Amino acid sequence: MTDPITRLATRDAAAPAGHYSQGAAWGDLVFVSGQLGARPDGSHTADRPFEVQARQALASLLAILAEAGSGPERILRVTAYVVGVAHWPEFNRIYADVMGGAKPARTVVPVPELHHGYLVEVEAIAVRGG
């Protein structure tokens, strides 16, 4: 396949703070970079409760997917990094609420810490269209 790689950027998610793009698409595949709970204007929610952080991270992920012409029902796989196993049940509840009927393959990885003191980060692989 000789399709070009498209770098994704939307104002509905925080701009990358490093040398990467919010996401990339190749053909019908969409790869969303890890999203912390940063707001689209770049302000942080790391000092806010887990639920606020998780909902913002998932909202950013979905905004990037929308920019690529995709959505929750087109997600193939999600990886979530959660600080501490204790947040896992709350993440499950929030994730189910945000994702609705979409049930992509998913991995939750408990980690000791994340950048800027965040408690959750999510990334995804999806298919365009829908």
TrEMBL record:
Similarity field: Belongs to the RutC family.
Organism of provenance: Methylobacterium ajmalii
Stated name of the protein: RidA family protein
Pfam families, A to Z: Ribonuc_L-PSP
Highest taxon, organism lineage: Bacteria
